[in-house]
Structures are given as structure tokens and as C-alpha cells.
């Protein structure tokens, strides 16, 4: 049923597309026909007056990569801050997949969100999502590395030793869990699906647990997820070993729908700019104490390069493929 519902979701997504900016659009770039990018910043322009929306209740969510209940509680204080800043009620909407999150924003049911690094591109191109921040500090954004973990007593010492092994990737749309490995590993002499067997685990934490329990020989995962698991005692870091660490990637993006009216957008941006994480939230997010400003054009360049290198397209067909793989994962 879940697989059918996800495929129906994507079919409805494609068939109900109404090109709001189809006429008189000087530049669209990679954006869907519903959107226009007149200023060339690679994200959709804010909907003009008369078309834009001013909902009485704002809907917020965070990426479904990990346990949604944990993050619903973590963002409760920020939701309250958004309510004061906008003068509107803010509710949390739990999504079960990346494809569902993209569709929810495109359809207008989701207004403010945090998207995982990889799916951010789908949200930008297909849902009019405008990312403006990542978790961070006063002088820098919080980032993460792609790491490859094995058990401490594993004979695997180098990336070349992955050949012939069972390696857990997370999901098709995940940057560090799938796209980055496919783009970066060949330069290290290892080609996923060719030199080792790829097994999709569904989530970063499930990949790590699978390696710890011996279900997989190794797994590429996001370093921040791994560090949180060690800190929480979900795994014993002394029982694991990291054989590869990439340069830093940006973490999940935060932003809003281009369908919202400009005055409301200004209030949302101000809330992201001025909010400071309470102590409990800082603990959840590795010491980050604020939302650090970013632009999709500049800060997601490396992610777009990885997507291009792996043949991934941030379009409706790419979303359909992501939904199919997510549905197959849930079916298992």
C-alpha cells in the first residue's frame, strides 16, 4: 500500500503541475515550469501579490531521515518563536519520506521545512523551496563529512578492501549515504555496484547499526549522525573504525515555500536570523547555536556537482525514482 501511495503521490505531483510563471518568465534554469528564476539565483522567485499565499496556520517539518518524534520535540521552541515572529499558529507535520516532503511543499501543504542535503535539490527545482540557512555557529555553518565505518576487528583497512564486500548505502536520494559515495569512491579506486554489492538500509542509523551487528561489512554515512549515535550510547565507538573521511558538506537546509507572500517571508527570514538555540537544542545538534545563512547557488554547488557526476536529475522523473526506491525500502 505504501509503495502504491508513493507512486500515486508522484503521479499526482506531475499531473497537477500548473505553470504559475509559464508566461513572461525571462529565465527558468533547472526549475519546474511552475516557477521562474528571473534573478538567476537558482531558486524560485517569490510568488507575486495576488498569487502568493498568506495562510492562517504555518506548517513546519524536518527531514524524515531519522526518528521524527525526536526532532518534533527538538524544534518545539523554534516553532513557538516562529509563532511570535509571524503572528500565526505553527504546527509540526510529520512526513514519512523525502518524496512526500517535496510533494507536501509543492502542493502548498508545507510552508517551512528542513530538507536533507540530497533532497534539497528536488525541493528547490520541483517544489519552489527557498533554502536560506543551515545549523551553525557565529562564524561558520555546521557541516558533516562522508565517513565509511567498519567494525574494529574487520579485516577492511582501506577503501580498496571494500571490493567484494556487502556495503550499506542509506537511500537513493541521500547525499552522504549514496550520491557522494557514487561520485567520490571511483576516484579512490572503488566503484559501487561494480566492486562491491550495495544494500540499501533506509537510514544512516540503520546502516551503522547493521555494521555493528555484522549485517554489512561497511557503510558510508554522515559523520554527524554517527557522532550522535556514539554520544547517545546507541553504539560503542570503541567497537567501530573509520577508514575514510571526506571534506565537509553542508547539513540539512532550512527554508520556506516561494508561494508565501513577501511580507510573511520577511518575518520568517528574520526569525531564522535572530533565533538562538536553547541548551537542549544545542545538545541535539552537536553544539550548533543558531541558523547560519547560506545560499543554494553557492553553498550547494558541491552537492549539485555530485548529483551531476552520478547522473541524478532534480526533476519529476528523478523524484519518481526516489519515491520508488523509498517505497521498495519500506516494503522490505
Automatic annotation (TrEMBL):
Annotated keywords: Signal
Chain ranges of the Solute-binding protein family 3/N-terminal domain: 57-288
Secretion signal span: 1-22
One Gene Ontology term, aspect cellular component: ATP-binding cassette (ABC) transporter complex
SUPFAM superfamilies: Periplasmic binding protein-like II
InterPro entries attached to this UniProt entry: PhnD, Solute-binding_3/MltF_N
A Pfam entry, by short name: Phosphonate-bd
GO biological process, one term: transmembrane transport
Source superkingdom: Bacteria
Record-stated family: Belongs to the phosphate/phosphite/phosphonate binding protein family.
Stored NCBIfam families: 3A0109s03R (TIGR01098)
PANTHER family: PHOSPHONATES-BINDING PERIPLASMIC PROTEIN (PTHR35841:SF1)
Identification of the protein by name: Phosphonate ABC transporter substrate-binding protein
Amino acid at each position: 500500500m505504501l509503495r502504491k501511495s508513493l507512486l500515486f503521490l508522484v503521479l499526482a505531483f506531475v499531473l497537477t503541475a500548473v505553470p504559475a510563471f509559464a508566461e513572461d518568465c525571462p529565465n527558468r534554469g533547472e526549475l519546474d515550469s511552475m516557477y521562474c528564476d528571473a534573478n538567476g539565483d537558482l531558486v524560485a522567485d517569490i510568488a507575486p501579490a495576488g498569487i502568493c499565499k498568506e495562510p492562517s496556520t504555518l506548517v513546519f517539518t524536518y527531514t524524515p531521515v531519522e526518528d521524527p518524534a525526536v526532532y518534533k520535540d527538538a524544534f518545539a521552541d523554534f516553532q513557538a518563536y516562529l509563532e511570535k515572529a509571524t503572528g500565526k499558529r505553527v504546527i509540526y507535520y510529520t512526513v514519512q519520506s523525502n518524496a512526500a516532503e517535496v510533494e507536501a511543499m509543492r502542493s502548498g501543504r508545507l510552508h517551512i521545512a528542513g530538507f536533507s542535503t540530497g533532497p534539497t535539490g528536488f525541493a528547490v527545482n520541483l517544489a519552489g523551496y527557498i533554502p536560506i540557512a543551515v545549523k551553525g555557529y557565529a562564524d561558520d555553518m555546521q557541516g558533516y563529512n562522508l565517513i565509511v565505518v567498519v567494525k574494529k576487528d574487520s579485516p577492511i583497512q582501506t577503501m580498496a578492501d571494500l571490493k567484494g564486500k556487502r556495503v550499506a548505502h542509506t537511500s537513493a536520494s541521500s547525499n552522504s549515504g549514496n550520491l557522494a559515495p557514487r561520485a567520490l569512491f571511483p576516484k579512490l579506486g572503488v566503484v559501487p555496484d561494480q566492486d562491491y554489492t550495495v544494500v540499501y538500509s533506509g537510514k544512516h542509523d540503520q546502516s551503522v547499526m547493521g555494521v555493528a551487528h555484522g549485517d554489512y561489512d561497511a557503510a558510508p554515512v554522515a559523520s554527524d549522525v554517527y557522532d550522535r549515535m556514539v554520544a547517545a550510547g546507541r553504539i560503542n565507538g570503541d567497537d567501530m573504525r573509520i577508514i575514510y573521511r571526506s571534506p565537509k558538506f553542508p547539513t540539512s537546509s532550512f527554508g520556506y515555500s516561494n508561494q508565501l507572500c513577501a511580507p510573511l517571508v520577511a518575518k520568517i527570514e528574520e526569525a531564522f536570523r535572530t533565533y538562538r538555540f536553547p541548551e537542549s537544542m544545542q545538545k541535539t545538534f552537536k553544539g550548533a547555536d543558531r541558523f547560519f545563512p547560506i545560499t543554494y547557488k553557492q553553498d550547494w554547488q558541491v552537492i549539485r556537482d555530485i548529483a551531476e557526476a552520478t547522473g541524478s536529475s532534480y526533476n519529476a522523473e528523478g523524484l519518481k525514482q526516489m519515491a520508488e526506491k523509498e517505497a521498495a525500502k519500506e516494503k522490505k
